[in-house]
Amino acid sequence: MGAYILRRFLLIIPTLIGIMIINFALVQFVPGGPIEQVIAQMQGQGDVFQGFAGSGEDAGSAMPSGDEQYIGARGLPPEFIAQLEKEFGFDKPPLERFLNMIWNYMRLDFGESYFRKIGVIDLVLEKMPVSITLGLWSTLIAYFVSIPLGIRKAVKDGTSFDTWTSGLIIVAYAIPGFLFAILLLVLLAGGSYWQIFPLRGLTSDNWDQLSWLGKIGDYFWHIALPVIASTISAFATLTLLTKNSFLDEIKKHYVMTARAKGLSESRVLYGHVFRNAMLIVIAGFPAVFIGVFFGGSLIIETIFSLDGLGRLGFEAAVARDYPVIFGTLFIFGLIGLVVGILSDLMYVVVDPRIDFERREG
Questions:
Q1: Distances in Å between the alpha carbon of 78 and those of 35, 64, 75, 87, 201?
Q2: CA angle (8, 290, 353) in 5-degree steps
Q3: Tens digits of per-residue pLDDT, 102-138?
Q4: From CA 77, how far away is CA 92, in angstroms rounded?
Q5: Integer distance in angstroms from the first to the last C-alpha of the chain?
Q6: 184 near 229, Cβ under 8 Å?
Q7: Which end of the chain is more exposed for a tag (fewer CB within 10 A), N or C?
Q8: 148 C-beta neighbours (distance < 10 Å), count
Q9: What are 49-58's contacts with CB under 8 Å, separation 24+?
Q10: Residue 252 CB neighbour total at 10 angstroms
Q11: Cβ neighbours of 75 (radius 10 Å)
């Protein structure tokens, strides 16, 4: 097992470098950049993309070639443009910029945001509480509800309980998360009906004045609606996966043997079936958490006015804030690869009979 883990960790380096190469190469062909953003703001356009919606002549000059100027740079001193290129590091060829970036990342130096004048690590840490809140609580609630429900559906397979809960789960899965979030706002956050929950933020303005018990209550009061909106579609897959895993195990011979020995149904289910049936579900917890943590939170964060990693990534992409884009890509890519290894270790913890080295052989 140790050799397998070592090989997996060694594979992280080329995999991560490959991810960075692909994304760095793609960025070179995307119109617009931080220099265009600065020029657009100086010209009062507010956003470089407004320039691309203009005439064909402007659109054709989106990327400088030779002596061609950046969009909107006509009339600006060439020395100013050269200073901008030097400040952003575009006075060097792409290969040199990429190698410098990777070398800095290997030393955990992720640079500073072009437009916020704050380190990338500090920026990520600043936005982390929102994303951890949505990812952690959404995953825990999904597991604590879906696993018992899936077991119950497996035991009651084919009954009316199984039928109506399946219909309810399918309806919940079909509702887009952002639409459900808007519905919650309209109904429960003062949109048109009741003002029960707050509209924005993770805490109230008087957070520092609250007791520790009041702070806990205030925190859960604020996160209730965004967490519910983030969790609603996660129930279906996890519940049905749990049900199908239990049904597969219940039909096996060792279960019939345990029942023939006179063991109670609960002893059979939770003493014998549970470990084997929950192998895929429990071992996949790290990957599920990371998926909820990194994915799909932009709309939820926007609707509930939460400033998390979803909005950070979107704003960095729009502003062409390359240090934030590539820094977060490197960090999250590394975390994702490590979590993949942790998922394999979880399989071994849940079922020690699994041997990845023997499987490879």
A1: 13, 13, 9, 14, 45
A2: 50
A3: 999 988 888 888 888 888 999 888 888 888 888 888 8
A4: 20
A5: 12
A6: yes
A7: C
A8: 12
A9: 49/318
A10: 12
A11: 7
pTM: 0.71
Report the alpha-carbon distance of residue 229 to residue 222 in Å, rounded: 13
* Residue 204 CA from chain centroid, whole number: 25
How far apart are the C-alpha atoms of 360 and 341, rounded to whole Å? Answer: 15
Residue type, position 227, single letter: V
What pLDDT, in 10s, does the model give residues 211-223?
888 888 888 888 8
Tell me the CATH architecture of domain 121-360.
Orthogonal Bundle (1.10)
Taking the C-alpha atoms of residue 218 and residue 213, their distance in angstroms, rounded to an integer, is 9
Return the SS3 of 119: strand
26, 57 contact by CB (below 8 A): no
**Euclidean distance between CA atoms 61 and 325, whole angstroms:** 24
How is the chain split into domains, by residue range?
A: 31-109, 121-360
Cα 335 to Cα 329: distance, rounded to the nearest angstrom: 10
